[in-house]
Amino acid sequence: MHTPRPSVAIASVGECLDIEQLYGQYASYVATIGLRLLGRDSEIEDLVQDVFLEAVRSIGKLRDPAAIKGWLATLSVRAARKRIRRRRVHAFVFGSDSVDYSVLVDRTASPEERLLLSRSYAVLDSLPANQRLAWVLRYFEGEPLAVVAERCECSLATVKRHIQRAQDHLQKELGDA
């Protein structure tokens, strides 16, 4: 018996997107963004599932199928924000977990670069979620400010403040490292 593959209609455009195909095409992209935003590979699988579940639920809101990659990035930021906030509450109540940030570093990086990135992620863990997300999108993902504001769903002025506060905190904690 043939089981039809799931597809979701985008009413405003009149096209159908195959969710399986969408997942196959963009899951690694969502995972990569999620890893940089969260700084923990143990949470990535759940984040990817959360993002695609939300995509299935809200795909009717997508007006332009060509914008799907950016839309998935925005959903990834939302899901990461929720996870970071939950993580902070958990750390407050139960204490923080030790984290190995070495999985985030390119194996070809020097020992100094590996240490700096690990220290940077440790400092990022102490930031409020919005500051962390904006800073990571800007400096780790290399996104222009307008895109960071769009992904974080805030104004350009607000995203600039978030990034500056995060930068000030990192500078204070890391110094000239």
Return the structural class. Answer: mainly alpha
Q: What's the overall average pLDDT, rounded?
A: 85
Number of H/I helices: 7
Principal-axes geometry comes out as globular
- Could you spell the SSE succession in H and E letters? EEHHHHHHH
Hey, roughly how much beta strand do the residues contain? Answer: under 5%
CATH superfamily of the largest domain: RNA polymerase sigma factor, region 2, helix turn helix motif
Give a concise summary.
This protein is mostly helical. It has seven helices and two strands, in the order ββααααααα.
Would you write up a description of this structure?
This protein has 177 residues and is mainly alpha-helical. It folds into 2 domains: 1-97, Rna Polymerase Sigma Factor, Chain: A; 99-177, Orthogonal Bundle (Arc Repressor Mutant, subunit A). 65% of the residues lie in helices and 5% in strands. It contains 7 helices and 2 strands; from the N terminus they run ββααααααα. It has helices at residues 19-38, 44-58, 68-94, 111-124, 129-140, 145-152, 156-174; strands at 7-10, 15-18. A two-stranded antiparallel ribbon has the order 1-2. Mean pLDDT is 85; it is low at 1-15.
